[in-house]
Write a structure and sequence with these properties.
The complex is a heterodimer of chains A (95) and B (496). In chain A, 32% of the residues lie in helices and 4% in strands. Chain A contains three helices and two strands, in the order H-H-H-E-E. The two termini of chain A are 40 Å apart. In chain A, helix 1 (5-14) packs across helix 2. Chain A has a domain at 5-42. The model of chain A has no long low-confidence stretch (mean pLDDT 92). Chain B is an alpha/beta fold and 496 residues long. Chain B contains 15 helices and eleven strands. An eleven-stranded mixed sheet of chain B has the order 1-3-2-4-6-5-10-11-9-7-8, with helices on both faces. The two termini of chain B are 23 Å apart. Classes of the chains: A mainly alpha (95), B alpha/beta (496). The interface between A and B is large, with 51 and 73 residues. Chain B: One of its GO terms (molecular function) is glutaminyl-tRNA synthase (glutamine-hydrolyzing) activity. Chain B: This is Glutamyl-tRNA(Gln) amidotransferase subunit A.
C-alpha cells in the first residue's frame, strides 16, 4: 500500500498539523518507508488471537462517585496562552 | 570528603547516616559539577535555590531521626518529562515552552517526600521520541564518553539522554528516566550506567507527560544496581490517581540483593541473535552468560518466536497512542500558540500551533499514528498490531512457564554512535536501536541494563536482563550478581 501526496495531505489535516505543499512529497516518502516496515506484520498468523487491551490483567479500581477537588479556576487557567474573564480564549469558532 | 558528586546513592546515604557529610555538601558538589558541564547540555533547567532549600530540610530531618527514608538528602536530576510544580516541564518540546505545572508528578512527589533533592531538569528527546537525544528543542546532549583518541561528539542515547549523561558524568548521584521502548535501558547501556524499567504499573504515570500510555514506565538511572534498588523502592507504589498503577506491596528491593543466583534458570533467546550484530556484542553476551553460569545459574536456550515483529508492532501502537495523547497540545490550555493571521479561525490556530510547536520526529509519529487509526486502516494496522502484541507477550509467558527466571540479551545492537551520524538515514534505521528492548515494553515486563564491558574503542556496552512481572527484586538480584562478576568500573575521562 503506497501513500501518495493527497493521502499525506489528508493525514496532516486529520492530525491538525500544517504541512506546506512543497513538503508533501518528502512526507509521503517517509510514510511509505515506515509503513513498508510495518507491513511485516502481515506475515503473522493472528487468526483467533485477541487484540491486547491491557498488558497486565487487572480490574480497574472503582471509586465513589463524589467530588474530590475543585475551585481551582486560577490554576487551571494559569498556563493558558490567552485567558479572559475566567475562560480560555480562542479565535472565532462559529461565523 | 572530596568529589562528593561522584558518590552513588548507597555510599552517600551511608555517609549521611554516619554524619561524615551533609546533604548541603553533597548538593553543592553536584551544583558545582553541573556548572562546569555546560558542554554536555544535560541539565536544561537548573534549580539550585530549590535544591539547597531541600538539602537544608533533609539535613534537619536526618539529624532529628534515625528513621529518615533512604533517599533523604540525596541530590537527583529529574527528566524533563516529569511535571514538577512551579519548575519548567517541557518534555523537551517547543510546544510546552513556558509551561509551569501547578502540580507535582506522583513519582517526583514520592522522591521529594522521602527527602530527595532536585538539582534541575534533564534534557531528553522531544516527548521521549528518539534514541539519540537529537530531537530535543534544547539541542543535543553530548555523551561524556568519547572513543579512544577521537574527539567526535557521541550520543548518550535516548530518550533519557540527559539523565544518562548526567549520571555518567557525576553531575548528580542518580536521575529519573522513563522508558516506552528502551528509553532508560539504551542510554544506560551507552553510558556505562544502570537503568531499570519496572513492570508496567509498578510506578504511577500520573504527572508524567504521556507518550504511549500502555507502554510508558518511569524508572531510576543510577551508578550501580544497589542504587537502582534503593531508588526504585521510593518511586514505586500504588497511586489512586493512575488507575493502571498496581495495588501491590513494594518489597525492600535492596534487602533482596544477596548475589546468590544458584539454581536460577537464565534463558538465552535464539531470536536475539541477529544478522549484522557486531562480534563484540556477541562476545559480551556469551561472556555475560558464562558469568551467570559461574555464579551458579543454569543457562538454557529459549525461543521467543515473535521477536522479529516487536518493532513493527511498536511502530503502530506507540504512534497511535501518541497521536491521541498529543491531541491535547492545541494552543488553548497551555504552552505555545502560533501567531495568527487576520481571518484565521480555530482550525488554523491548531494547525499552525502544532506545526510550529512539534519537531519533525514528533510530527512524523503523530501523523503515522493518525493514519493507522483512521477509518479503513484501523483493523489492518492497529488491531493487527495489538494481536501481534498478545503473541509477543505469550512468548515470554511460555518461557517463564517453562521455569525460566530471567532472560539475558544484549541491551543495544551497537555501542554509542556519533551525533549527526544517523541524520541522513531513514527513520527506521534509528528505530532499530530499540530492537532488544522494545519487546519488554510490549509485554509489560521489567528489564534492566547493566554495564559489563567496553568495546575496542573504549565505549561502554551493556547487557539486558528481563524478569517476570512484579519480580523486580529477583531481577535486581540477578543483575547484582552480573554486576559483581563483570566488575565494570570504567568512567569517562573528563574533557568538558
Amino acid at each position: 500500500m503506497s501513500i501518495d501526496e493527497s493521502t499525506a495531505a489528508r493525514v496532516a489535516k486529520l492530525a491538525r498539523i500544517r504541512v506546506e505543499e512543497d513538503a508533501l512529497p518528502a512526507l509521503a516518502a517517509e510514510f511509505n518507508t515506515i509503513l513498508g516496515f510495518i507491513e511485516q506484520l502481515n506475515e503473522v498468523d493472528v487468526e483467533g488471537v485477541e487484540p491486547m487491551t491491557s498488558v497486565t490483567p487487572m480490574r480497574l479500581k472503582r471509586r465513589r462517585d463524589e467530588v474530590t477537588d475543585g475551585n481551582q479556576q486560577d490554576k487551571v487557567l494559569a498556563n493558558a496562552p490567552d485567558a479572559r474573564e475566567g475562560f480560555f480564549a480562542v479565535p472565532k469558532v462559529v461565523e | 570528603m572530596s568529589d562528593l558528586n561522584k558518590l552513588g546513592l548507597a555510599e552517600a546515604r551511608d555517609a549521611l547516616r554516619k554524619g561524615d557529610v551533609t546533604s548541603v555538601e553533597l548538593t553543592e558538589a553536584c551544583l558545582g559539577a553541573i556548572e562546569g558541564a555546560g558542554a554536555l547540555n544535560a541539565f536544561v533547567h537548573k534549580t539550585p535555590e530549590l535544591a539547597l532549600e531541600q538539602a537544608k530540610a533533609a539535613d534537619a530531618r536526618l539529624k532529628g531521626s534515625e528513621e529518615a527514608p533512604a533517599m533523604c538528602g540525596l541530590p537527583l536530576g529529574i527528566k524533563d518529562l516529569f511535571c514538577t510544580k512551579g519548575v519548567p516541564s517541557q518534555a523537551a518540546s517547543r510546544i510546552l515552552e513556558g509551561f509551569l505545572p501547578q502540580y507535582e508528578s506522583t513519582v517526583t512527589q514520592k522522591l521529594f517526600g522521602a527527602g530527595a533533592v532536585m538539582l534541575g531538569k534533564l534534557n531528553m528527546d522531544e516527548f521521549a521520541m528518539g534514541s539519540s537525544n537529537e530531537t530535543s528543542t534544547y539541542g543535543d546532549v553530548t555523551s561524556p564518553w568519547r572513543r579512544a583518541g577521537d574527539d567526535a561528539a557521541l550520543t548518550p542515547g535516548g530518550s533519557s539522554g540527559g539523565s544518562a549523561a548526567a549520571v555518567a558524568a557525576d553531575l548528580c548521584l542518580a536521575a529519573t528516566g522513563t522508558d516506552t521502548g528502551g528509553s532508560i535501558r539504551q542510554p544506560a547501556a551507552f553510558t556505562g550506567t544502570v537503568g531499570i524499567k519496572p513492570t508496567y504499573g509498578r510506578c504511577s504515570r500520573w504527572g508524567i507527560v504521556a507518550f504511549a500510555s500502555s507502554l510508558d514506565q518511569a524508572g531510576p538511572m543510577t551508578k550501580s544496581v544497589r542504587d537502582a534498588a534503593i531508588m526504585l523502592g521510593t518511586m514505586a507504589g500504588h497511586d489512586p490517581k493512575d488507575s493502571t498503577s498496581a495495588d501491590l506491596a513494594v518489597p525492600d528491593f535492596e534487602a533482596m540483593l544477596t548475589g546468590d543466583i544458584k539454581g536460577k534458570k537464565i534463558g538465552i533467546p535464539r531470536e536475539y541473535r541477529m544478522d549484522g550484530t557486531p562480534a563484540e556484542i556477541e562476545k559480551l553476551w556469551s561472556d555475560g552468560a558464562a558469568m551467570l553460569r559461574d555464579a551458579g545459574a543454569e543457562i538454557v536456550d529459549i525461543s521467543l518466536p515473535h521477536t522479529k515483529y516487536a518493532l513493527p508492532a511498536y511502530y503502530v501502537i506507540a504512534p497511535a497512542e501518541a497521536s491521541s495523547n498529543l491531541a491535547r497540545y492545541d494552543g488553548v490550555r497551555y504552552g505555545h500558540r502560533a501567531k495568527l493571521a487576520v481571518g484565521d479561525g480555530i482550525t488554523e490556530m491548531y494547525e499552525k500551533t502544532r506545526a510550529e510547536g512539534f519537531g519533525a520526529e514528533v510530527q512524523r509519529r503523530v501523523m503515522v499514528g493518525t493514519y493507522v487509526l483512521s477509518a479503513g486502516f484501523y483493523d489492518a494496522y492497529y488491531n493487527r498490531a495489538r494481536k501481534v502484541r498478545t503473541l509477543i507477550k505469550k512468548d515470554f509467558e511460555d518461557a517463564f512457564a517453562a521455569g525460566v527466571d530471567a532472560i539475558l540479551t544484549p541491551a543495544t545492537p551497537s555501542a554509542a554512535f556519533g551525533l549527526g551520524e544517523m541524520a541522513d538515514t531513514d527513520p527506521v534505521k534509528m528505530y532499530l536501536n530499540d530492537v532488544f528492548t522494545v519487546t519488554v515494553n510490549l509485554a509489560g515486563l521489567p528489564g534492566i541494563s547493566v554495564p559489563t564491558g567496553l568495546d575496542a574503542q573504549g565505549l561502554p556496552l551493556g547487557l539486558q536482563l528481563i524478569g517476570r512481572p512484579w519480580e523486580e527484586g529477583d531481577l535486581l538480584n540477578t543483575a547484582y550478581a552480573l554486576e559483581q562478576a563483570a566488575g565494570f568500573v570504567a568512567k569517562p575521562g573528563k574533557w568538558w
